[in-house]
Amino acid sequence: MPEPIYLDHNATTPLLPEVAEAMRARWAEPVLNPASQHEFGRAARRVLEDARDRIAEILGAKTVGPDADRVLFTSGGTESNNLAIQGLLQRAGARAPSAADGRPPSGAEDRQARHLIISAVEHPSIATLADELHRRGHAIDQLGVDPHGVICVADLANLLRPNTALVAAMLGQNETGVLQPVAELAAICAKHSIPLHTDAAQVVGKLPVNFRALGAATMTIAAHKFHGPLGIGALIVRHGVDLQPQLFGGFQQAGLRPGTEPVALAVGMCRALELWHAEQHERAARMRELRDRFERMILAGWPAAVIIGVLADRLPHTSNIAFVGLDRQMLFMALDQAGIACSTGSACASGSSETSPVLIAMGCEEAVLGSALRFSLGATTTAAHIDEAARRILHCCNALRQQKQR
Questions:
Q1: Is 64 helix (H, G, I), strand (E, B) or coil?
Q2: Contacts (Cβ under 8 Å, ≥6 apart) of 285
Q3: Would you identify the CATH topology of the domain 17-277?
Q4: Would you name the residues annotated as active-site residues?
Q5: At a CB cut-off of 8 Å and minimum separation 6, what does 405 contact?
Q6: Cα–Cα distance between 355 and 345 in angstroms, integer?
Q7: Does the pLDDT at position 191 exceed 80?
Q8: Topology of domain 5-13+280-405, CATH
Q9: Each residue's pLDDT tens digit, 93-124
Q10: Is 259 helix (H, G, I), strand (E, B) or coil?
């Protein structure tokens, strides 16, 4: 088998050596509980809080003063999104107990139905949760996108209701890389005193993010998306925003997300973010150059290809390409055999052969829907990787075309 080339960094990124070393150094010392009151525990707590403060600082959250924002450590992006959506919804206050389809809410926690608006291009950890909340009796509306994959800001005002409790709009789309107008949406929400949650998992560690400037109530990040460790993420919560905890059994993190915090993982997440921060402009420029080079090579060798979202502002490392004329599943399997790791959509929806809801929301034609694959770059991707990947991809495309013609 040829040497593998990893172009699926949106699913997860390899751990950088400097991050592994930072965590190894923590594990080399006694692994202690930061909630313990003795000196060992207090020392672990200082390390944890230093990491928490540094993460908040890099991401533009307020770290000092009576109106400081909060960084809640979680197990990853999915938990952060669930904590934000359910925690904000349950704290939304009394609303009229009516559901969109007339069914009564189920469960004591859902006696008062609320209205939730999510974009049509949310990650499965939000879209699937919205489906479950609708099953429980809450009303859900989707905020559509234009043909380029950008959320239609002008449509938000028409969807708002007296009982709208929350709006969710991701910052950067995980399949197409299209950047979203979250600050504009948050400004509209603020006029109606409605909190907005944004999933920034694909943007943090790729482009600068200023939490306060966005105007969001809560924001999700995940360490393994920017060369940090698996198993840790965070939810950043604006000062004054009230969350209902979803887990119980401890006082850690003000009881909002109880459980013993993983000090070494927090250090690893902080170190990965610091490494990005030190070279953020160079990294973004290099990935954008490599992405554009990759797309030019594919288009030159397969003129029928369509770069999805190409006319919108995109993340510098993400390319969703429809190889019109080919079947995406067959091409994906051929590329896997050729040593190219890519994706047919969100990693959290892997194993599903269903057409991407994101591309459907964009109004893509059937030929595009059935032939689109996602390629995503990382800090470890080189020009040699890109050139060789494009060569193998085009070879697979031509081989599949010849098979169809026989």
A1: coil
A2: 316
A3: Aspartate Aminotransferase; domain 2 (3.40.640)
A4: 348
A5: none
A6: 9
A7: yes
A8: Aspartate Aminotransferase, domain 1 (3.90.1150)
A9: 533 344 444 444 444 444 578 999 999 999 99
A10: coil
